[in-house]
Specification:
Blueprint: H1 2-14, H2 20-39, H3 50-62, H4 67-86, H5 113-120, H6 128-143, H7 147-151, E1 158-159, E2 164-168, E3 174-178, H8 181-193, H9 195-198, H10 219-232, H11 241-254, H12 259-266, H13 271-274, H14 276-292
Antiparallel strand pairs: 1-2, 2-3
Helix pairs in contact: 1-2, 2-4, 6-8, 6-11, 11-14
Length: 296
């Protein structure tokens, strides 16, 4: 079974061109399923039938998996068995009649511009780490980047005089993202005053944002930065890097930005993904009406 999983993940990586994070999710999902069938004394994938598939998803529902996670499990396992059937490793595909779960689309949390400013103004910029963190927060809000995109930015991706950065997004797709004057100012300050003291020969590899060891920051460290400064700023809801991305998109649309332009900046392959922010915008408008209309 392990060999089949490795083969399938290799195909996802090199033929489907999926990101490392997506492949890791698929691997975790398939491994969880394999552990489940082993626990049920099934040691040959040809023995897997529709009932064991159904039992697996019943278990996921009982442990409280949300519709989004369940849908991803279905995609992972269905894709795996499609591959096994196409390769002749199994005689029948037990997922043929598996119906995809309709995902509930939760509106992501969005901060007001006032709260964003509170967080942006929290880092102490008179020291190396504070200046680095200030540059990170400013760049996040100015560009709406994903965490993986930010930590992998290199100095050669900066075109600050032209007011844009080059980003390698999902599926290794390159895009150009404009950034504002405040982000440019603080990234330049960081590059001049802080990064040189963090840089380590043969370790830093041209990455922009570095830790104290001189290597690029991890995804977890970025989460810690957001968690720390949001608490310092007195924000009482849980904040993570994607909150800045959601806020970036929502604030642009509230200001009248074109949906297609926002799609391009976010790096969404499908505009329907971007359209969720129009729902947030409608919620904002309704809230304004409720708060300010005399008969709201």
């Amino acid at each position: 079974m392990e060999t089949f999983v490795k083969e399938y993940l290799t195909i996802l990586r090199f033929e489907k061109n999926l990101s490392d994070n997506t492949i890791q999710s698929y691997q975790n999902d398939i491994n969880n399923f394999i552990n489940f069938i082993l626990d049920n004394n099934i040691k040959d994938l040809n023995e897997v039938g529709p009932k064991i598939i159904s039992d697996f998803f019943d278990k996921q529902r009982k442990v409280g998996r949300d519709s989004s996670t369940t849908a991803r499990y279905m995609s992972s396992i269905k894709g795996f068995f499609n591959y096994l059937e196409d390769s002749g490793y199994v005689e029948k595909n037990p997922t043929e009649k598996l119906v995809h779960v309709k995902q509930s689309r939760k509106l992501p949390p969005v901060l007001s511009f006032v709260d964003i400013e509170k967080i942006l103004n929290t880092p102490k910029t008179d020291n190396t780490i504070g200046l680095r963190d200030k540059a990170i927060l400013e760049l996040f809000y100015s560009s709406g980047l994903r965490v993986s995109e930010l930590i992998n930015l290199k100095i050669s991706d900066l075109f600050l005089n032209d007011e844009f950065i080059r980003v390698l997004g999902k599926g290794s797709k390159e895009r150009i993202v404009p950034i504002g004057s405040s982000a440019i100012k603080w990234v330049q300050e960081y590059l001049i005053k802080a990064r040189p003291s963090l840089e380590k020969k043969n370790k830093s590899m041209n990455y922009i944002f570095l830790n104290k060891r001189g290597t690029k920051l991890s995804r977890m460290w970025i989460w810690k930065i957001f968690n720390f400064y949001s608490k310092e700023a007195g924000i009482n809801i849980e904040i993570h890097p994607h909150t800045f991305r959601h806020s970036f998109a929502t604030h642009l649309l509230e200001g009248g930005a074109d949906l297609r332009a926002v799609q391009e900046m976010l790096g969404h392959a499908d505009i329907s993904t971007t359209q969720i922010y129009t729902h947030i915008d409608r919620e904002y408008i309704k809230q304004v009406h409720r708060d300010h209309h005399p008969r709201g």
